[in-house]
Amino acid sequence: MLLELSIDSCRVHNCNVNARPTTGLDQTKPKATATRRGGFILQKLALILAFASILAALALSACETTEPSASPREPLATSSPQQTIEEPSRPVPRSTIEEPLTTARPAPAPRSEPSATSSPDYTDWDVERGVEEQEAVPEFPWPPPRASASATISRDVLLGTQEHPSLGDAVTALDLAFQATGYGERSYYGVPGGFAMVSRMEQMNQDGSAKGPADRWSLKIPPMGLSLSAYLRALFRGRPGYYRIIVFVVTSHPFSQSSAKTTSEKAGLWVSSGLNALPEDIASQDYTSAHRCTALIYEFKRTGTQQAEFVDPSEITGAIHLEKSGLLAALKKR
Fold first, then answer.
1. Closest Cα partner for 192 from 261, 146, 262, 137?
2. In 3D, which of 322, 326, 333, 325 has the Cα closest to residue 153?
3. What is the mean pLDDT of residues 232-257?
4. What pLDDT is stored for residue 41 in this prediction?
């Protein structure tokens, strides 16, 4: 046991002796190794820093290159408000305009259009449709076309004993005469210094008297009688006979008839092309001592297959036309 302890102590001693004694070279090796390791780490750190600096430089350069591309977009952002300001001046579809109006206020109630002679609402309605339309009175051909016959109606026959008559009073007298003699349709035109009143085309007898109610206003063929040939002639040739249109011209301007001759087609459209009433601004004018009422009779005759032709001159005078039509007697009864 003693021997073993001695050996062990010697081993321990030897181990301690072998471990502790070192030379100077052995002492410097760890320091050199540590120095090399530190230098290697520093080199790596330097490389990492250099690489990081390169990446940072690349990132900065990328930012600098992208900034100029973003700068032109700024004017686009500022130009958008200008478009919204200019949009109201651009044409907008009717649906986008009318919808807010229909929702904002109810549609105006339908209002009956006043006649040309009514004055209370005529001004307001005229503002809506324009002054030019208000003053658009059809004009009768002037000077009037050559007539087949003519006659002058005196002031006493037309107006009686009225002291301060107007053109409207003359219209009233003529209207009453038309109603008394069966002239249902008439129309009004403007002429210098007055107006013209046109009757519907009527069929008359050769002596100027009006046909019966069945044939006076009808231009149809007569009913078939016993003769088939007479019916076929009437069917293909039209109704032969005499026709007339009476135009009353009331004006303060003396006039003469033109050399132009009208046709039955043109004259037949007069009654449908004029106004149904005399405008108030004309009717309110005074019937002065310079005014005259002249009846112009336009007569047409159709025979056989020919078209109805203008008769110049008529076989009877204008006074006889007025007498046979019953208009003169109707005016005198007033």
1. 137
2. 322
3. 82
4. 77
The predicted model gives 144-150 an average pLDDT of: 98
Nearest alpha-carbon partner for 298 in 212, 200, 188: 200
- The answer for 326, left when phi > 0, alpha when psi is -120 to 50, beta otherwise, is left
**Summary count for the chain: helices (H), strands (E):** 15, 7
Are 313 and 298 in contact by the 8 Å Cβ rule? The answer is no
Whole-angstrom distance, CA of residue 136 vs CA of residue 279? 10
Alpha-carbon distance of 301 to 310, in angstroms, equals 7
* Element holding 294 (H helix, E strand): strand 292-302
Is 138's pLDDT higher than 70? yes
- Per-residue model confidence as pLDDT tens digits over 265-279: 999 999 999 999 999
Closest CA to 136 of 84, 181, 189: 189
DSSP string, 117-149: T--TTHHHHHHHH-HHHHT-PPBPPSSPPPPSE
With beta carbons less than 8 A apart as the criterion, state whether 293 and 152 touch: yes
